[in-house]
Each structure stands twice: as structure tokens, then as C-alpha cells.
Design goal:
Bound molecules: fe (ii) ion
Helix content: 40-55%
Radius of gyration: 21 Å
Number of helices: 16
Structural class: alpha/beta
Oligomer: single chain
Order of helices and strands: EHEEHEHEHHHHHHHHHHHHH
Length: 363
């Protein structure tokens, strides 16, 4: 993926969306760029880079940047783009916590050189490892995939595969409970949901003794299952109460949006595409988008649906607290003809695995 130098994840916070494309044109494909959407909390790793392009002459912009950096916490590299070589703006940027500045007009070679210096200045524990190796890395890949769907650019399948492999490694080495606890501690909303579903699906397939290729296929389907949500307005996605009928209709478009985004990506196999499109179908025909019935819903989709529902139940939602794993499993068991009873029974040891924290609300 790279020539030996580190690929950095660069989050861009800009006061105008039109500022993002020129920066993307400079830093990609050497590095990966993720715009921070208005009002959305960024998923930041300590070694990520935040690039801030705001008009610091405006008090409202200064306040917004200050608040963002306060929430961003320990992110190490904070680069400000300054409109021109103005001493007062450079001072303002550093007063806000800038670790370096870039001056307009941006010069490609200069920007890449400055970023490469960041690498040299921040060796990671002496290891020559890619940045994206841990939970923050997996979350960052989710952020990048969502960003691609939003921009209408192809998802990098290699990234989805990398995230899936990281999740499989983590769940098989440390167990599902550790993964769930870690994810719930550090990540929020849609990314948290995707990370949870992937971990649960991998735990489910592993628990059933699946061959590694099948664990991987289900894991990849889980990694990709909700990418269509990138095109759902945040006002609906992050609504702090239950959705109204019209909003629900919009939300229900996400499986097809995800399917459409992925079908153009070379190398996504048909079973994974099918699972992305049909993860909200039920055996009794009451699901969406195609109201399939049992005969048309393969095992991989049935397992993804169970993992998806269970994850949603143990998540914190703005309008209700997270359910314990026991309670969530009980609710799954009570869904009657929607889910396959034998699979729900097989899911029980995964849902209630030893070492769990049954009080999910304690996170
Ligand atoms: Fe979904
Ligand atoms: Fe989901």
C-alpha cells in the first residue's frame, strides 16, 4: 500500500466544504484524508493528524475550533492552514493549540514534505508499523469508507479487508467481550455500531467452528453492512429520539445505498453484496428492502442480521440506555418467526460468553 513510509490518517476540519477537495488532491494517495462532517464527532487516534482550515479572523470560527480541539483530546498533530503569512493569524493558531501551520497558497511538495517530517518526529515505539493497526485504526478505516461513500468515490476494498482482519485477530486473540468493552469505551454512534457488529459476527462464526474463509466472509459483510448510512442525513442518523415515519423511510434506504456503493467495487463477492443489501430482511417477509422470505435468505445474511440486532440492543442510544447482554439475547429470542430459532440458540453462548460484563450500562 505504501513505499515504506507511514500512511497517515489526516482529518480535515474546514469552515467551508469547498476547502476539502484541494487538500485531498494534495495529500492523497500518499495519505488518507477524512473530512470531519459538520456536527459530527470525529473518531481520532492519538497518532492521527488534524488539519484545520478555518478563517481565524472570525470569532465564531475561533470558538468552534477551540471547542473541537478540546473534544479531540490527545490527538498529537494539529496543523492549521493559514490564509496568508499573517503574524497575527499564526499566533492565533498556536494559541489554539496548533503544532504547526501551512500557508496558502498550498504547495504540494511543501505540504508532503512537512507531513513527512511529522513521521520522522513521531516514531511509534521504534516499530516500523503502519498507523492503522489497532482499534483506532479500524475505526479510522470505517471513517474513511463512509467518507468515500459520501463523496461518491469508490470504497477501498483493501481497507475494508484490513479492518476485518484486525477485528478477527482481536476477537480470536482477546475474545469478544474484550472487543465489545473496548469499542464501547472509545467510540460512538455509527462507527461504534459497525465495529460492534463486526466483532459479534466474527465471534458468532468462530463460535460455530466456521472455516477461516467463512469467518472472514461474514466479518467482511459485517464491516461493510451499514456503509450506506453515509448517505443518510446526520439529523436522522444521530436523532436523539425515535424516528418519525418519514425519517424511518429515509433510514430504510441505507441497505440499498450501501449495495449500490459496493456493487461497482471490483472484488466484492456476491454473497457479501447480498448480505449488505439484505441484513434487515426477516424470514417471515416483514423486513426490507425486498421483503424476502426464508427461502431467499442465506445463512450468512441470517447470521449478520442476528449480529446486527444484538449489537444495536447493547449500544447506548440517545433515547434509551444500553441493554445487558442477557436482556438483549432474551429480546432476540422473542422475535419469533423473524429469525431462525436454531441460529438464535447457537448464538446464545456467543451472546452470553464467559467473562462478559452483563451490566452493559456500566461503560
Ligand atoms: Fe443496517
Ligand atoms: Fe447495522
Amino acid at each position: 500500500m505504501n513505499d515504506g513510509r507511514l500512511t497517515m490518517l489526516i482529518h480535515v476540519l474546514a469552515d467551508k466544504p469547498s476547502k476539502v477537495a484541494p487538500i485531498r488532491a494534495i495529500v492523497e494517495p500518499r495519505h488518507r484524508l477524512v473530512p470531519i462532517r459538520d456536527g459530527q464527532k470525529a473518531v481520532l487516534g492519538r497518532d492521527d493528524v488534524v488539519l484545520i482550515d478555518f478563517d481565524l479572523r472570525r470569532e465564531a470560527c475561533v470558538s468552534e475550533v477551540r471547542e473541537f480541539l478540546h473534544e479531540a483530546g490527545s490527538v498529537r498533530h494539529r496543523i492549521f492552514v493559514i490564509d496568508r503569512n499573517s503574524h497575527s493569524l499564526i499566533v492565533q493558531a498556536h494559541a489554539l493549540g496548533a503544532t504547526s501551520t501551512l500557508l496558502r497558497p498550498l504547495d504540494r511538495d511543501d505540504v508532503l514534505h512537512r507531513l513527512s517530517l511529522l513521521d520522522l518526529a513521531a516514531p511509534r515505539s521504534g516499530r516500523h508499523a503502519p498507523v492503522l493497526t489497532d482499534l483506532a485504526g479500524s475505526a479510522a478505516i470505517f471513517a474513511s469508507m463512509f467518507s468515500a461513500v459520501l463523496d461518491g468515490t469508490p470504497i477501498a476494498l483493501a481497507d475494508a479487508r484490513q479492518a476485518t482482519e484486525q477485528i478477527i485477530n482481536s476477537v480470536t486473540q482477546k475474545g469478544l467481550t474484550a472487543w465489545l468493552d473496548d469499542v464501547r469505551k472509545y467510540h460512538e454512534s455509527t462507527f461504534q455500531h459497525c465495529l460492534l457488529v463486526s466483532g459479534i459476527a466474527v465471534g458468532f462464526a468462530t463460535g460455530l467452528g466456521f472455516a477461516s474463509a467463512d469467518v472472514y466472509r461474514l466479518g467482511l459483510a459485517a464491516t461493510l453492512h451499514d456503509v450506506g448510512k453515509a448517505n443518510i442525513p446526520l439529523a436522522i442518523l444521530d436523532k436523539p429520539s425515535r424516528l418519525g415515519a418519514d425519517e424511518e423511510r429515509v433510514m430504510r434506504e441505507h441497505p440499498v445505498l450501501g449495495f449500490d456503493a459496493l456493487k461497482a467495487v471490483a472484488g466484492v463477492d456476491a454473497e457479501v453484496l447480498d448480505a449488505v443489501r439484505h441484513h434487515h430482511e426477516y424470514l417471515d417477509g416483514s423486513g426490507y428492502p425486498d421483503a424476502l422470505t426464508a427461502a431467499d435468505i442465506p445463512d450468512i445474511v441470517r447470521m449478520l442480521t442476528i449480529s446486527d440486532i444484538f449489537a444495536a440492543l447493547i449500544e447506548q442510544r440517545p433515547y434509551r440506555p444500553p441493554l445487558s447482554r442477557q436482556k438483549a439475547y432474551d429480546m432476540l429470542s422473542e422475535m419469533g418467526g423473524k429469525l431462525e430459532p436454531a441460529l438464535v440458540r447457537a448464538f446464545r453462548p456467543v451472546a452470553l460468553a464467559k467473562g462478559q460484563n452483563t451490566d452493559a450500562g456500566s461503560k
